[in-house]
Predict the 3D structure of the following.
Amino acid sequence: MTSRGLRSGSALTYGARMKRVSRVVSALVLSTALAAAGLGAAEAAPTKVLTKPQMRAALLTVKDLPAGFKLDQSSSKGTGSDDVQYLSNDPGCAALTGGLNGSVDRSTTATRDFTLNHGMEAVQVGLTGFRTAAAVRKDFSGGTRLFRSCHRVGLDMGDGTKLWLAVQQKTVRLDGNQTFVLTMKGRYMSVLMNMALEVSQVRNYEVEVMSLGVNRSAAYESRQATALLRAQTAKLVQHLR
């Protein structure tokens, strides 16, 4: 089965599944660094520079996305991860369960989700504020250490489907900012899925962009994530002036 072969009615059903997958995977990945670094709510308190509403105002909007993307209103209902279970396979990925069990305090994070083609493509942008730049570095290093030993993630989606993702990570400098790059790829319901997550340290913030698509190449998702990360970083810096 491919996305081209889906009829309109089934595409909506399949798209709903894909949107849920994107929300679960992004919550899993973006929550992990806090759990891995062992930060508590006190250390990861919201920055004094921007309030939560101001952080949301600093996020990219649909006007900043490529043509065709729409705001994913369903993301406000949560990740839908309550019935998702981690499949033990790669011991190095065990700490990822912290992103699924709701134990990570996300009060410091503002996110916005977008979707295209009935959920066949998804983008999430996010900002996480910390009290100090040192706290950002600690969080960042915790995530990179974890994914250095995590190479294959399995998820039981709780609806009769399973998702296995091959994981690769690297750290680069992007426009002078230390940037964590994570790519995941696998097959879900017989179609190829590629995801690129890029996280940059910018002052006392982490700037996060995830790009996920069905039957798109890994290179395409990485290019899109990098372009949006640059745009999101520029908008944050503008709001910090």
Notes: The CA atoms of residues 109 and 128 lie 4 Å apart. The chain has a mean pLDDT of 75. The chain is about 30% helix and 30% strand.
